[in-house]
């Protein structure tokens, strides 16, 4: 007769550590979402509004992708230098966010984008004014735009992996899925490199395109071969351009231009999945080892 000894539970400590870490991450994410939803609700109920900058007219002060928060205000309470959001009377469905450059005698205000050469055509009156910008967060608007895709993807990933993936590989699938989710969201929203063509002007030595960077990463914008300009978020630059063929479109290209600490930061970000797997690890299997002892009949 063979006697066997089954050893179980050697992976229990690893299982508990992985479960605790995963649960802590889930709870932290839920807490952040709850805080954001609560803060947004309170802000709206108290008269505040929010919007995302979509055009580059405010330059580095409020570049493309900036999340702005506004409060109701009276023109009489505004000062030169304040940033306001208003609805132009000739385009009442649009929102424009520009800086106050003059207070007029009739109580209205003149506004202008920081990189614009002229003031806006119509003075802003109380009827036009949405509110004064009391806070603005560069780049956060990109996250807000991508949030629906991220949240939907996370829900599908967590539920799908819980139902169809073995326990041991569940954390690996979720890490890989999260990485792919961020990549797909980035392709949809395109927050990292976003050059915006403002104008094309003819000069003595050809055509020059004025470009504003709306992407989060330092960007090198290339026009004619051998000509480029390096821009950070909200900065304005100019490059000579030409069409590839007669009557064809003028071509400019933008690409990330990472040096120094930017390069170090991107390497660290790319290593986050590796660091996470190192900290959390795989869920350990419960081993079953068989140790043969005596064989034969019991006395």
Automatic annotation (TrEMBL):
InterPro entries the record matches: Peptidase_S26
GO biological process per UniProt: signal peptide processing
Entry's Gene Ontology molecular function annotations: serine-type endopeptidase activity
Residues annotated as transmembrane: 24-43, 147-166, 173-193, 260-282
The protein's name: Signal peptidase I
Keywords: Membrane, Transmembrane, Transmembrane helix
Organism: Friedmanniella luteola
Top-rank taxon: Bacteria
